[in-house]
Amino acid sequence: MSELNHTFQPSRLHSHQPGWFDLLSVIISGMLENAGEQESQLFLQQMGGQLAQRYPLNSAQTVRDLEVQMNLALARFNWGFVDIEPRENALLLTHMALPEGDNQLATASWRAAMGAVLTGLYAGWLQAQGGSERVPLVCDSVSDDAALLFRYQNS
Fold this sequence. Notes:
By secondary structure, the protein is of the alpha+beta class. The protein is 48% helix and 16% strand. The protein is built from five helices and four strands; from the N terminus they run ααααββαββ. Strands 1-2-4-3 form a four-stranded antiparallel sheet. The longest helix is centred in the last third of the chain and has 22 residues, at 107-128. The radius of gyration is 15 Å and the shape is globular. It starts with 9 loop residues before the first helix and ends with a strand.
């Protein structure tokens, strides 16, 4: 894990302006009720991709640079932080300190929704750094309370 990750303060990561998480929770609940889980997940991934375009990263020369750039953007949102682990043929991204929802939306639904947004966000950032649209970014796990796990790997 990078040195930068150890500098984040948990209270800062989970702070949010009152009302915004309530609104987001209502929107996600409404999407799930009206459009279903699969369509909602696709929509939220698209929204994450649009956030990646709205908040582009500086050019990264190394995986470490990429991790730092992502964490600076995530800190701006108070959305936690990511640890990137390069593998022989993949990048493993572990997103930690995800903000908690508002306790009105089921925890699993909140984590799945944020996992979808982060899938789009991370995929957009990776593509902007020269990654291929044909290489999928997959959210492998949203069930663990401590982290969301993503894998960027050519099948």
